[in-house]
Write a structure and sequence with these properties.
Serine Threonine Protein Phosphatase 5, Tetratricopeptide repeat, single chain, alpha/beta
Length: about 400
């Protein structure tokens, strides 16, 4: 019988070579409140991992190892630490029919807790994890929906179309069926795009275009949807998932500044400094966009913290071009100039900040320091020490 709730400390091993699938599984597990998650990417790491840790359950990709699945499971069962550990096996649903048939027939001999095809959704995955972990999983969203029977928009549309067909209103029924089909195609294309499966996305859109030639054009207009989802994942600190969403937006519109900036923020969250800076630099290469004025301020602040002063200066200059009445922008710009020993420029910026807000204490104190540094530099340039920001 399942427990009332999961044990967050249960160690879990995820053996998956695809970065997209790794991120998806990790997101699902974290949403299920698991905290101790180990992710490995090949069969060699798998064999090392099972010898050093007892896991509550494992999630293993069928194609992870060059050896066959039976050999992989046999190696795990021969390990004293994990000879009875529940195993969830995942496999690509597009594998050859004979290979799939063999895998299904071997399931009993492999003593698997579950066998699930990819791509899979959260509900199917949750059912498998509940079985493997002997736990009942309830996410925040499911708590709100539990006990309520909800129908998707597509289901409602199909029921309506069926009713119209039965009553002889064939033309209206046909229109609704087409809308429902296009909705499914759009959903599939979004999933494939967000998971990096560009070819699959294009294939689905081609099929949809046979029904509605405007489908691809309409789909390309969904850039903002991916941006919004990326920003939401940034707030939740799901940086890898956020990065995939922003990359999907870039596929739809390569000139989308929020997408480039979002990738930079995602990489920053993943502590990939160099990649983040490259994304921020790309933003600054485009024609400045007033709709993204606050983004430039953010880029300047991030670049300053990373001591990339030229990037910071350029970003602040663009932001000031759009927002000339923000005293904080001039104050931040002055800090960058100080770090570069450009005291005259720093003084000009700090004076503008104070002129806009005469009670700006940080700016007033900064001006005093700038004046002192200037005096020290003029008095003895060689002995003067660099100020710290």
């Amino acid at each position: 019988m399942a427990q009332d709730k999961i044990d967050p400390a249960t160690p879990i091993l995820v053996a998956e070579s695809s970065p997209v699938q790794q991120a998806l599984v990790k997101e699902f597990l974290e949403d299920f409140h698991f905290q101790d998650i180990t992710i490995i990417k090949d069969g060699y790491e798998l064999l090392k991992a099972i010898k050093g840790q007892k896991y509550g359950f494992m999630i293993i990709d069928h194609h992870l190892s060059k050896s066959n699945s039976l050999n992989t499971i046999s190696s795990i069962r021969d390990c004293p630490l994990n000879n009875d550990t529940p195993i969830i096996f995942t496999y690509n649903n597009n594998m050859e029919l004979d290979e799939k048939r063999d895998l299904l027939s071997d399931m009993k001999s492999m003593t698997l807790s579950a066998l699930i095809p990819k791509p899979f959704g959260k509900d199917i995955f949750r059912d498998s994890v509940e079985k493997a972990s002997n736990s009942t999983i309830v996410t925040a969203t499911e708590q709100e929906l539990r006990g309520e029977k909800s129908l998707t928009a597509t289901t409602v549309a199909l029921e309506l179309a069926s009713s119209l067909r039965d009553s002889g209103e064939f033309e209206n029924a046909g229109k609704i069926y087409i809308e429902a089909m296009l909705s499914v195609f759009h959903g599939m294309a979004e999933v494939y795009l967000a998971s990096g499966k560009i070819d699959a996305c294009k294939s689905v859109l081609r099929e949809a275009c046979r029904i509605d030639p405007e489908t691809e054009k309409k789909f390309l207009a969904k850039t903002q949807k991916f941006i919004d989802r990326g920003n939401e994942n940034l707030k939740l600190k799901r940086f890898r998932i956020a990065k995939f969403e922003f990359e999907a937006a870039l596929y739809l519109d390569n000139n989308c500044l929020p997408a480039h900036s979002g990738i930079g923020e995602s990489l920053l969250g993943l502590k990939e400094k160099d990649g983040a800076l490259e994304s921020f630099k790309k933003v600054l290469e485009f024609q400045p966009d007033i709709q993204s004025r606050l983004m430039y301020k953010r880029i300047g602040t991030v670049a300053f913290k990373l001591k990339e002063y030229e990037i910071a200066i350029k970003a602040y200059e663009i932001a000031i071009g759009f927002i000339q009445t923000d005293p904080e922008l001039y104050y931040l710009q002055s800090l960058v100039f100080v770090s570069q020993w450009k005291f005259e420029d720093a003084l000009l910026s700090i004076n503008r900040a104070i002129n806009l807000n005469s009670s700006f204490k940080e700016a007033i104190n900064a001006k005093k320091k700038i004046m002192a540094w200037m005096a020290a530099k003029n008095k003895n340039p060689v002995a003067a020490t660099a100020p710290t920001s």
